[in-house]
Amino acid sequence: MKLARRKFLHLAAGAVALPAVSRVAKAQSYPTRPVRIVVGFPPGGINDIYARLIGQWLSERLRQPFIIENRAGAGGTIAVDTVVRALPDGYTLLLTAINDVYNPSVYPDLKYEYMRDLAPIASIAFSPEIMEVNPSVPVKAIPEFIAYAKANPGKLNYASSGVGSGQHLCGELFKMLTGVDMVHVPYRGGAPAVADLIAGQVQVMFDLLPSSIEHVRAGKLRALAVASAKRWPTLPDVPTLGEYLSGFEAGTPLGIAAPKKIPNEIVATLNRETNIILADPRMKARIAEVGGEALSGSPADFAKLLETEAEKWRRVIRAADIKLG
């Protein structure tokens, strides 16, 4: 009788431990097949740049393809909705940024809430906005631009990757602080907006640095200021917007998110591997080269940073009464 009871207790303990062992084994073997990283904007934009960069390195470390899937449209909300609806198994990830968190303020009919339905996993980089003009615009500094814009009200067009995008909100904040009158021209992504800026179809843009830095270096665009707290290392001669407009800072942390119920063990694997990659001097140099700054940390660190930054832009959205849908 005692032997039977002992056997029962042993089997019961094994049954309780089995799910935990199964989860650990799954995490240790993850990934066993290709992983897709969904990007909410067309190829060539900042989200796409970082998705391909981190995807390549994760592929090399985890020995499975990390495939980039561009699902552009509606300010990135199509991509977020795709990931929210995916199985929370670690095989569908989102290249995420600030706009994904504050988009429900722009699109009130969205069916998801970022912090309820998504799990921030790992930050990758921080990139500041840069205020740039087509070289045909006869200004070389922020005070000159403000004077020129006030002398030509409504005649300057500023581009963005879409209504409610970071570029759009940065432009609205600039208008609020300076009193200038510029016309917003939204595009379906940052790359076509930059292309038209270079072509002179629009005159100014507040763009995230990685999307424009090569064009600035090549002289196709003129940088007036960077919206970082201090001068950016790769453009040391370009002043900050804060040197002219106190406290003006704008940019975005970018990273990886997944459906909310993704197993903690897989979150830990992805976060650990991403931080190892970001500590590599070659990756730090590559991120700096494209105009960003490597940003490592825990999932909780990333979640807190996203929410803090997003609240700043929600205030701009309310003040400018930006709504879609």
Please give a structural write-up:
There is one protein chain. The chain is of the alpha/beta class. Helix content is 48%, strand content 19%. It has helices at 2-29, 46-62, 77-84, 98-106, 114-117, 142-151, 166-178, 190-199, 209-217, 264-279, 281-289, 299-320; strands at 35-39, 66-70, 92-96, 118-133, 156-160, 182-186, 204-208, 222-226, 251-259, 293-294. Strands 1, 2, 3, 4, 5, 6, 7, 8, 9 and 10 form a ten-stranded mixed β-sheet that branches. α7 (166-178) links the parallel β5 (156-160) and β6. α4 packs parallel to α12 and α7 packs across α12. The longest helix has 28 residues, at 2-29. The protein starts with a helix and ends in a 5-residue tail after the last helix.
Short description:
By secondary structure, the protein is an alpha/beta fold. The protein contains twelve helices and ten strands. Helices cover 48% and strands 19% of the residues.
